[in-house]
Amino acid sequence: MATIKDIAQKAGVSPATVSRVLNYDASLSVADDTKKKIFEAAEELSYRKRPTKRYSNKKIAVVHWYTEKEELNDLYYLSIRLGIEKRCKELDMNANIYFFDNIHEIPADDIEGIIAVGKFSDKQVKELTKINPAVVFVDYSPDEDKYDAVVIDFTKATQKIVDYFMATGHQQIGFIGGREFLKGQTVPLEDLREKAFQSYMKEKGLYDERFVYIGSFSVEDGYHLMKQAIADLGDQLPTAFFTSSDVVAIGSLRALHEAKIAIPDRVSIIGLNDMSVSKYVYPSLSTIKVYTEIMGETAVDTLLERLEGRSIAKKVFISTKLVIRKSVRS
Q1: What pLDDT does 162 receive?
Q2: Structural domains of the chain ordered from first start
Q3: pTM for the full predicted model
Q4: 160-173 in b/e burial notation, b at 16+ Cβ within 10 A?
């Protein structure tokens, strides 16, 4: 495992700055460029190299549904992008990175395919396929009969978390989640984690809508939603929370610390993603590991299959793993 010192050396900053950035220290004033260097260094130091053949003549576009600034607030997508870039580097391919606010800059005549990371509206899907029909979607499947996609099974991941909480004696289990919006739209997308939590908890006879708080996928909303739960519920605060992403979990941990609520003795927390910073927070975060680097690598390999002649659409599910650290009782 990479250390704080390793990350600091690679990013060219002090270990203290790395520690504060990885813990989302709200009192730290640091430029986005510095944050980006630190997050990317933390991700890159966790990757493995593997020998492979070369595709030096291939040029592809990688389109991210976030802006570059938004990406820093949700490292899930940043780590997928870095997985794509890493695989392309291994294959000696040229991957040009675009964010959806500069999609018009993609040179349609100079690329052989597109990897689209994130959520896209029907209109945006048409825009992408008009630039180039060979598109692989990552973390989204707009039409599995038409388009290649690389996704994870959020329903199964959610059930793993609930099962662990139940096996360790928890009956009151809360949920702090987020919802996402397609660009230019005001109606949120359905979140599969929230849907799966509600359905599975009802199946187990444990669902209590008072314990569910929904905002956005950010440290700030994780913090404010947990503060709201503490204020609303008092002594009836659940003994465990599933937070739908690690960044939400980090904010929730901060709110619990401020309220002097013991973790995990009083409240256990499990996140989802296992982004590189999760092992550095206090207490270290239990989480569902999403193999984001494998998602990125698989997207590149899936696109190459398409370019080499496969005509049938393919939807690939990447497995997840429950990682137990110090934020839960065992």
Answers
A1: 98
A2: 1-46 (1.10.260.40), 51-152+292-318 (3.40.50.2300), 154-290 (3.40.50.2300)
A3: 0.79
A4: ebbebbeeeebebb
